[in-house]
Amino acid sequence: MSSRDSGSGAGGMGNYLAHRAKPHLPPWLGMAGVGVAGVLGHDRWAASPSAAVGLTLTSVALSGGAWVMGKAASRQRRLHSAITTALGSAWLTAACLAGPTAEPIGDLYLMGGPALALSWNVRIFMRTSDTSDGAGGADGGLMEKIGLARAQIRAARAEPNRVTARVGLVPGEQTNDDVPRTLPRIASALNLPTSAVRYAPDPDSAREGDLVIVPEDMLAESVEWEGPSNLGGSIADPLVIGRYDDGSPLLLWLPGDQESGRNSTHVLIAGGTGSGKGDAALNLQTEILSRSDVTMVFSDPKSFQDFRPLLPGYDWAVEGGAPTEVMVAAVQAAIPARTRWLGQHRYRQWVPEAAREQRDPAQSCRPDGRACGCPGMPFMVAWFEEAANTLRFIGDDAFTGIAQEARSAGMALVVSLQRPSYDQMSTSTRASLPSVVALGCAPDDEGFCLPDEVLAAGAHPGAWRNRKPGYCYVVSPGIDEDRYASPGRTWRFTPRAVDAMQRLALWTQRHGAVADPVTARALKSVAGAAYTGRTAPDTAAPSATQVHVDDDQDVDDEGPLVDPEDADIDPEAELPELQDGDDIPLFGQETGRKPSPDEARVLFAQALDEFEAAGQMIVGPKDFMDWCDRHGLSRPWVSARLKEAAIEGRLQPTNTTGRWRIVPRPDGGVPAVLTAA
């Protein structure tokens, strides 16, 4: 090795050592400066009483000032600084008055000065080693500022618009429950909205978890709906209803999955007025209707105000009141029928194969083990929009039976309402809705929408209210739990989406699944003619836009058509004055013959059959008012006959006093009273 190389190496080593030593020099320089100040001060003030007083007051002021100025620092650093200042100023006062070499002042300087300097060197070394050590975290004093001193931020993982850092709390002093209350202070320190910071505790540890920070809100700009994400796919595939604040898709699953262990689910959509609940419902409905192995029955007391373009795609759609009551009862009746079919075909839960014709001997209902060839059973969604109206009409436990039993029958219940409080919905129903799409709401309603652990992790829908339509939190099986507190936003539906929604409904009519015979029979057993099922579009009949006139066709455009006998009537002529006898009735005024009791019962049975044929399955005395006038019968007589029909099984009582549900007759059945007549 040449001398040049050797010199270069020595110089490099010297530069390295000097660089490493620089952070540790200030304490030693400070110690030397205090010693020099003591020598100079003794030479000037050794015999001055006034200097003694001034030096003593200065020493006290410096010590107190160090304590006050260290208020923003950690308690350890504050105490260390105050002690160092107090000892240094006390030694300087003594050295100026008695001399720096007097006993024991000189010995204290030689022993205490290096000790204090070394204590600061150790502190600097520990801080820098923690920063560079992969097991520690450089938080720049953040954890101390927010009240979690000595907690460590470890192994931060950066993703696009998302930073996830592992937090290790002090053993025996801090727990995961201490972190959520500090999230607003973290957001304040980072100058971010509160919803941009959340904490996901480690389920296997009481003092570790992940701190998630999203620096940029990618949801600020709304994105319009551009169509379904998977037209013709299976309902078992994820439903895309929007995006998270880091840009990743906002997903939801309805059926379960045996391989991944995901359970099937029911969904609650909750949000205040103006929170975007309608758009959230449209996102989910358009995803459901675009799949090939699912049917949907739908109730909307608002007369399909937001959903009218999708009407042709529903298997059964009703408005509120009595028709919805019939739908609830019909869906309840379909549950055991579907469960029985799935069990007979050896399905523990609904899978996409169940929607196809059963050609697999392993899924056969035949006792000989051969393929049965039974029609498949599509997944079924029962959706009740503005459910608060239905709950008031039927009762707060209207959906309890469906919510508790439908998941095993290959069905999903979707309930949408503004405020899912326990005075509107029974606790049993609320507990059976494991999935929730929580939009903006009043702060007091947060606990009704989201689980406590999700709110503790940083979710705060009450901060949005109706100021950020479409913003939501989604809690559902299949979603990573650390995503529960991540805000998302649904796609926005504008008037430009109406045409695409109509085309989607037409596609569902032609290519979507129809109710299987088992489900259709169960629904008709309660709803009768009120349930018609979805029918294919009439392709033979032209639409209004298809009607046209050929160029060579003669068109008669001579005015309105009139009957020949009215051709000479002048529509502008005045009517003649009344003549004598014009006010005499043309027909006699006989009241007619009152039917006999047997005849009246026959007429009453016929009236029930007429209601059933018209699809009106809920009746009461007020529905027979015109009928009573025609036949000369009273309302109390009708009430008595309704009770008799209920005893005979032709009617069933509803949750509303004085209202009865017609029990459909078997196909082709004839009322016994008519047969007797």
Structure write-up:
The chain is α/β, with parallel strands linked by helices and 677 residues long. It folds into 4 domains: 23-132, no CATH class; 142-213, 2-Layer Sandwich (Gyrase A, domain 2); 239-527, P-loop containing nucleotide triphosphate hydrolases (Rossmann fold); 597-676, Arc Repressor Mutant, subunit A, CATH 1.10.10.10. It has helices spanning 3-21, 25-45, 49-69, 75-98, 105-132, 142-145, 183-190, 277-289, 322-344, 387-394, 400-405, 427-431, 446-449, 452-456, 498-511, 517-527, 597-614, 625-631, 635-648, 672-676; strands at residues 152-159, 162-168, 197-201, 208-213, 239-244, 249-252, 267-270, 294-299, 316-318, 379-384, 411-417, 435-439, 471-475, 488-490, 618-619, 651-653, 660-662. The strands form 3 sheets. A 10-stranded mixed sheet has the order 6-5-14-13-12-7-11-10-8-9. A hairpin with a 4-residue loop joins strand 5 (239-244) and strand 6. It is elongated. The termini are far apart. 35% of the residues are buried. Residues 1-8, 130-137, 539-559, 586-591 and 668-677 have low confidence and may be disordered.
Provide a concise account of the structure shown.
38% of the residues lie in helices and 12% in strands.
The largest β sheet comes out as: 10 strands, mixed
Classify the oligomer: single chain
What is the architecture of the largest domain at the second tier of CATH? Answer: 3-Layer(aba) Sandwich
Count of individual beta strands: 17
Structural class: alpha/beta
Number of helices in the DSSP assignment = 20
CATH class assignment of the largest domain: Alpha Beta
Corresponding CATH superfamily of the largest domain: P-loop containing nucleotide triphosphate hydrolases
N-C termini distance: 127 Å
The radius of gyration over CA amounts to 41 Å
pLDDT < 50 stretches: 1-8, 130-137, 539-559, 586-591, 668-677
Shape: elongated
Strand content: 5-15%
Average of the residue pLDDT scores: 82
Total of domains: 4
Question: Numbering strands along the chain, what is their spatial order in the largest sheet?
Answer: 6-5-14-13-12-7-11-10-8-9
CATH fold-level topology of the largest domain: Rossmann fold
Assign a percent range to the helix content: 25-40%
